[in-house]
Amino acid sequence: DAGVIQSPRHEVTEMGQEVTLRCKPISGHNSLFWYRQTMMRGLELLIYFNNNVPIDDSGMPEDRFSAKMPNASFSTLKIQPSEPRDSAVYFCASKRGTHTDTQYFGPGTRLTVL
Amino acid sequence: AQRVTQPEKLLSVFKGAPVELKCNYSYSGSPELFWYVQYSRQRLQLLLRHISRESIKGFTADLNKGETSFHLKKPFAQEEDSAMYYCALLVGTGNNRKLIWGLGTSLAVNP
Description:
The complex is a heterodimer of chains A (114) and B (111). Chain A has no helices and 11 strands. Chain A is globular and about 40 Å long. The mean pLDDT of chain A is 93. By secondary structure, chain A is mainly β. By secondary structure, chain B is mainly beta. Helix content of chain B is 0%, strand content 49%. Chain B has strands at residues 3-5, 10-14, 19-21, 24-26, 32-38, 45-49, 60-61, 72-74, 83-93, 96-101, 105-110. In chain B, strands 2, 5, 6, 9, 10 and 11 form a 6-stranded mixed beta sheet that branches. The N and C termini of chain B lie far apart (40 Å). Classes of the chains: A mainly beta (114), B mainly beta (111). Chain A binds chain B through residues 3-4, 33, 41-45, 48, 50, 55-56, 91, 93, 98, 101-108, and chain B through 32, 34, 43-46, 49, 86, 90, 94-104.
């Protein structure tokens, strides 16, 4: 198993552009989490899904951020329009079931907004 | 308030020395705590959880409810322990459970 897959691994874009980050969770996992990591704020939970349904999006910074999970094997995090302060590493994680709590992380996408 | 505090951003020790990474939490419910580790160029991964009462790679962590702490300890640090360590607290009930994370401590073990 390749584990959680994220793409792209690196993204450099200009302010105002739309950015789409992608995640494929581990097969059989039914919970998916999007995190943002910065030096100042550490690891922040943005949103998470159970069985493709968004459960808690209270961590989404503002309306420029949106996330979808159209099926059990794919999720996207979109930023439109992007701003320099969105520069961070974005992680996706998945876990099996609602009563097991070990999260498996992807390699992350390093986003730089110029 | 639900909060995890890791007071040290950076901890530097020599190989063979004992190491303790501090973690304090604030939570009104029954706490479940975890330590995750991120080695250089590797994914963030679970190191240990308090409920398992296990020792992984020589590390242990004891939940102290009186002091609301879950410090990570190892008696003899190794160079390969150099990594970023995150303490996390599980909050919520039923289908709505999520981890609250500390800011992390970067451990450097010097030769």
